[in-house]
Each structure stands twice: as structure tokens, then as C-alpha cells.
Amino acid sequence: MWPCVIGRFISLGNVLVSPLKDIWAGPATRRARAEIEAGQSAQQHVLLWAADLKATAHHLIEESATSHDEAAYHAGSLYKDKLSALRDSSAGRQSA
Q1: How many CB atoms lie within 10 A of CB 49?
Q2: Mean pLDDT across the chain
Q3: For residues 41 and 32, is the Cβ–Cβ distance under 8 A?
Q4: CB-CB contact of 10 with 41 (8 Å)
Q5: What is the pLDDT of residues 34-62, one digit of tens each?
Q6: Residue 90: which H helix or E strand, with range?
Q7: Helix (H) or strand (E) segment spanning residue 86
Q8: pLDDT > 70? residue 5
Q9: Angle at CA 78, nearest 5°, toward 76 and 79?
Q10: How is the chain split into domains, by residue range?
Q11: How far apart, in whole angstroms, are the C-alpha atoms of residue 50 and residue 18?
């Protein structure tokens, strides 16, 4: 059992071996909670989640596109335009 689908590097236990209530109250889960609350693993967790999300999105583009050129456009030019718009939006909120 993991804290989330991306947090597979943090094993909390195995529900086939131990009851969920024991895993939930167990030492690995308490340690993971303490690290998250202290901010020790929160940034790493966010970065791992974001990398997985980006890879999944890119794979979806490759699988859905009808040609290499279409995939390149959606993963390249269109992606860069959307990213630029997100950055501009974030900069506007931070300066307000």
C-alpha cells in the first residue's frame, strides 16, 4: 500500500498480509505522515507527481495523434503556448 499512486517509493504495508487498520496505524504510515507534515517529502512528492502527470499526458498525446507531425505539434508548439499562458497567469497572480 502506498500513500498515493505516485508515492510508490514509500511502502506503507501490504493489505494482502496485514489488515488495513494495522497498516493505517503502523510505523511506516506514522513516519510518512510526520515527513509530510514537516515538509520533508512534500516537495519531492509534488515533483514526482508532476513528472508522472507530464509523462502520462505526453504518452496520451502520442497514442491519440493520427500522425507523428500531429503528436509533435501537440507535444511541442501547442504545449509551449499553453505553458507560456500558465506562466503569465501565475506571474499576474503573484504580483497582485
Answers
A1: 14
A2: 85
A3: yes
A4: yes
A5: 877 887 667 777 787 788 888 889 999 99
A6: helix 77-95
A7: helix 77-95
A8: no
A9: 65
A10: 1-39, 43-95
A11: 31
